[in-house]
Amino acid sequence: MTATATRATTTPVDVDDVAAVLSSLSALIRTSRAIGRRLLDESGTSSTPLAVLKVLARGDGHDRPGDLAVATGVAPSVVSRVIARLEEDGLVTRRKDDVDARACHIALTDAGTAHLEHVHREAAARLAPELAGIPAEDLHRMPHLLQELEQAIARAERLPAHHATSTTESH
Protein backbone atom coordinates (compact mmCIF):
# COMPACT_ATOMS: atom_id res chain seq x y z
CA MET A 1 0.00 0.00 0.00
CA THR A 2 1.39 3.44 -0.86
CA ALA A 3 1.84 6.28 1.59
CA THR A 4 -0.99 8.15 -0.13
CA ALA A 5 -3.33 5.17 0.14
CA THR A 6 -2.35 4.73 3.78
CA ARG A 7 -3.07 8.39 4.47
CA ALA A 8 -6.53 8.13 2.92
CA THR A 9 -7.55 5.37 5.36
CA THR A 10 -6.27 7.06 8.52
CA THR A 11 -8.14 9.30 10.92
CA PRO A 12 -8.45 12.91 9.74
CA VAL A 13 -5.80 15.26 11.08
CA ASP A 14 -6.81 17.91 13.58
CA VAL A 15 -6.79 21.37 11.95
CA ASP A 16 -5.22 22.87 15.10
CA ASP A 17 -2.32 20.41 14.80
CA VAL A 18 -1.85 21.40 11.16
CA ALA A 19 -1.93 25.09 12.12
CA ALA A 20 0.79 24.43 14.72
CA VAL A 21 2.90 22.61 12.10
CA LEU A 22 2.50 25.49 9.63
CA SER A 23 3.39 28.03 12.32
CA SER A 24 6.52 26.08 13.23
CA LEU A 25 7.38 25.71 9.56
CA SER A 26 7.08 29.47 9.00
CA ALA A 27 9.39 30.14 11.94
CA LEU A 28 11.85 27.54 10.64
CA ILE A 29 11.85 29.11 7.17
CA ARG A 30 12.45 32.62 8.57
CA THR A 31 15.29 31.40 10.77
CA SER A 32 16.80 29.28 8.02
CA ARG A 33 16.76 32.19 5.57
CA ALA A 34 18.35 34.55 8.09
CA ILE A 35 21.08 32.07 8.95
CA GLY A 36 21.56 31.19 5.29
CA ARG A 37 22.06 34.86 4.39
CA ARG A 38 24.59 35.26 7.20
CA LEU A 39 26.50 32.14 6.18
CA LEU A 40 26.55 33.29 2.57
CA ASP A 41 27.78 36.74 3.58
CA GLU A 42 30.53 35.20 5.73
CA SER A 43 31.63 32.91 2.90
CA GLY A 44 31.43 35.63 0.26
CA THR A 45 28.91 33.57 -1.73
CA SER A 46 25.76 35.02 -3.23
CA SER A 47 22.44 33.27 -2.77
CA THR A 48 21.48 33.26 -6.47
CA PRO A 49 24.51 31.23 -7.68
CA LEU A 50 23.94 28.80 -4.83
CA ALA A 51 20.24 28.52 -5.72
CA VAL A 52 21.15 27.79 -9.35
CA LEU A 53 23.61 25.09 -8.27
CA LYS A 54 20.97 23.54 -6.01
CA VAL A 55 18.39 23.44 -8.81
CA LEU A 56 20.92 21.81 -11.14
CA ALA A 57 21.88 19.29 -8.44
CA ARG A 58 18.27 18.14 -8.14
CA GLY A 59 18.53 16.88 -11.71
CA ASP A 60 14.81 17.30 -12.32
CA GLY A 61 15.17 18.64 -15.86
CA HIS A 62 15.28 22.35 -14.98
CA ASP A 63 18.54 22.93 -16.79
CA ARG A 64 17.74 25.67 -19.29
CA PRO A 65 18.38 29.28 -18.26
CA GLY A 66 14.66 30.14 -18.37
CA ASP A 67 13.81 27.12 -16.22
CA LEU A 68 16.53 28.12 -13.75
CA ALA A 69 15.10 31.65 -13.57
CA VAL A 70 11.64 30.31 -12.73
CA ALA A 71 12.98 27.74 -10.25
CA THR A 72 15.11 30.33 -8.41
CA GLY A 73 12.58 33.16 -8.61
CA VAL A 74 14.92 35.66 -10.25
CA ALA A 75 14.90 37.47 -13.58
CA PRO A 76 16.28 35.64 -16.62
CA SER A 77 18.92 38.35 -17.10
CA VAL A 78 20.19 37.72 -13.56
CA VAL A 79 20.37 33.97 -14.22
CA SER A 80 22.28 34.61 -17.44
CA ARG A 81 24.91 36.64 -15.56
CA VAL A 82 25.07 34.03 -12.80
CA ILE A 83 25.52 31.20 -15.31
CA ALA A 84 28.34 33.10 -17.01
CA ARG A 85 30.09 33.58 -13.65
CA LEU A 86 29.55 29.95 -12.62
CA GLU A 87 30.89 28.84 -15.98
CA GLU A 88 33.98 31.05 -15.57
CA ASP A 89 34.52 29.51 -12.13
CA GLY A 90 34.28 26.02 -13.64
CA LEU A 91 31.20 25.10 -11.60
CA VAL A 92 28.84 24.60 -14.57
CA THR A 93 29.09 23.85 -18.28
CA ARG A 94 26.84 24.98 -21.07
CA ARG A 95 25.90 22.82 -24.06
CA LYS A 96 23.74 23.56 -27.06
CA ASP A 97 20.33 21.95 -27.33
CA ASP A 98 20.30 19.27 -30.04
CA VAL A 99 16.80 20.25 -31.19
CA ASP A 100 16.67 24.03 -30.68
CA ALA A 101 19.84 25.85 -31.75
CA ARG A 102 18.77 28.95 -29.77
CA ALA A 103 18.61 27.01 -26.50
CA CYS A 104 21.25 25.58 -24.21
CA HIS A 105 21.40 23.27 -21.23
CA ILE A 106 23.40 23.94 -18.09
CA ALA A 107 25.02 21.14 -16.10
CA LEU A 108 27.01 20.95 -12.90
CA THR A 109 30.66 20.07 -13.27
CA ASP A 110 32.44 17.88 -10.75
CA ALA A 111 33.81 21.11 -9.26
CA GLY A 112 30.26 22.49 -9.01
CA THR A 113 29.07 19.38 -7.24
CA ALA A 114 32.05 19.53 -4.87
CA HIS A 115 31.42 23.23 -4.17
CA LEU A 116 27.77 22.61 -3.36
CA GLU A 117 28.67 19.68 -1.11
CA HIS A 118 31.27 21.86 0.64
CA VAL A 119 28.70 24.59 1.32
CA HIS A 120 26.23 22.01 2.67
CA ARG A 121 28.90 20.35 4.84
CA GLU A 122 29.95 23.73 6.27
CA ALA A 123 26.36 24.52 7.21
CA ALA A 124 25.82 21.03 8.64
CA ALA A 125 29.04 21.21 10.67
CA ARG A 126 27.95 24.52 12.15
CA LEU A 127 24.47 23.17 13.02
CA ALA A 128 25.47 19.70 14.28
CA PRO A 129 26.48 20.73 17.82
CA GLU A 130 23.16 22.52 18.26
CA LEU A 131 21.25 19.34 17.38
CA ALA A 132 23.09 17.20 19.92
CA GLY A 133 20.08 17.19 22.27
CA ILE A 134 17.71 15.73 19.68
CA PRO A 135 17.46 11.92 19.79
CA ALA A 136 19.27 10.25 16.86
CA GLU A 137 16.07 8.42 15.83
CA ASP A 138 14.26 11.76 15.47
CA LEU A 139 17.11 13.22 13.41
CA HIS A 140 17.05 10.19 11.10
CA ARG A 141 13.28 10.53 10.60
CA MET A 142 13.34 14.31 10.09
CA PRO A 143 14.36 14.41 6.39
CA HIS A 144 11.58 11.98 5.49
CA LEU A 145 9.02 13.86 7.58
CA LEU A 146 10.02 17.19 6.03
CA GLN A 147 9.76 15.70 2.54
CA GLU A 148 6.31 14.34 3.39
CA LEU A 149 5.31 17.79 4.65
CA GLU A 150 6.63 19.43 1.46
CA GLN A 151 4.73 16.96 -0.69
CA ALA A 152 1.52 17.49 1.31
CA ILE A 153 1.81 21.28 0.97
CA ALA A 154 2.54 20.93 -2.75
CA ARG A 155 -0.52 18.68 -3.18
CA ALA A 156 -2.69 21.13 -1.24
CA GLU A 157 -1.47 24.04 -3.36
CA ARG A 158 -1.14 22.00 -6.57
CA LEU A 159 2.56 22.85 -6.86
CA PRO A 160 5.41 20.55 -7.87
CA ALA A 161 7.35 19.19 -4.90
CA HIS A 162 11.01 19.98 -5.53
CA HIS A 163 12.57 17.38 -3.28
CA ALA A 164 10.32 14.43 -3.95
CA THR A 165 13.13 12.42 -5.51
CA SER A 166 16.22 14.16 -4.13
CA THR A 167 18.05 14.12 -0.87
CA THR A 168 17.37 16.71 1.75
CA GLU A 169 19.38 19.89 1.36
CA SER A 170 20.79 21.96 4.14
CA HIS A 171 21.38 25.73 4.12
From TrEMBL:
SUPFAM superfamilies: Winged helix' DNA-binding domain (SSF46785). InterPro entries: HTH_MarR-typ, MarR/SlyA-like, WH-like_DNA-bd_sf, WH_DNA-bd_sf. Residues 15-151 form the HTH marR-type domain. It holds the Pfam family MarR_2. One of its GO terms (biological process) is response to stress. PROSITE patterns: HTH_MARR_2 (PS50995). One of its GO terms (molecular function) is DNA-binding transcription factor activity. PANTHER family: HTH-TYPE TRANSCRIPTIONAL REPRESSOR YETL, TRANSCRIPTIONAL REGULATOR, MARR FAMILY. This is Winged helix-turn-helix transcriptional regulator. It comes from Knoellia koreensis. The lineage of its organism: Bacteria, Bacillati, Actinomycetota, Actinomycetes, Micrococcales.
